[in-house]
Write a structure and sequence with these properties.
The complex is a heterodimer of chains A (about 120) and B (about 110). Chain A has strands at about 5, 10-15, 20-25, 30-35, 45-50, 55, 65-70, 75-80, 85-95, 105-110, 110-115. With about 120 residues, chain A is mainly beta. With about 110 residues, chain B is an all-beta fold. Chain B has strands spanning about 5, 10-15, 20-25, 30-35, 45-50, 55-60, 60-65, 70-75, 85-90, 100, 105-110. Classes of the chains: A mainly beta (about 120), B mainly beta (about 110).
Amino acid sequence: DTAVSQTPKYLVTQMGNDKSIKCEQNLGHDTMYWYKQDSKKFLKIMFSYNNKELIINETVPNRFSPKSPDKAHLNLHINSLELGDSAVYFCASSQDKSIAGGPDEQYFGPGTRLTVT
Amino acid sequence: SQQGEEDPQALSIQEGENATMNCSYKTSINNLQWYRQNSGRGLVHLILIRSNEREKHSGRLRVTLDTSKKSSSLLITASRAADTASYFCATDIMEYGNKLVFGAGTILRVKS
């Protein structure tokens, strides 16, 4: 059973197109995240949702819009794709704060490699 | 700005040797986490160490945390070829709750 799943695994598209990446977790976690990993493997958080409510929104272009229909799903929609959007996008989930405070361990999906041509 | 920075950037060792990776960070933290990423895969959580802990073990992994120096180390003992991966430390920023900030990672290659 896959804990955090993402579809598609690969996405090749042209500049200007609109695309979506879907994420689902079956761990019963309260919080879900989207990260972007660039070609140098640097991982940066984009968004975080807790119980369908947006709690972290980094300085991401508003062409990126997350949507959480329920606690188990967090989708990422990207409008007007640009070359610089090419990267690997990871979805992750976690329980709420750990006992001592601070973030709990996060469970990552397998990633979606987006290539914009 | 980047919170955690790993050192070295890349490490190549023989199977059976120990591998040590270091992480430094800038601000006060609640906890520090280490993750592994195999090529083409998602990150896998290894260990979480809280700010009031100094050392933690999990199998062949040993993590230390020195909050006075704002640094942590990950030791993998008796390394195996399967340990070949990128290793990332991640810290929270106390003022920003659940947000995890990842370092750039150490690429570990274990030669058999």
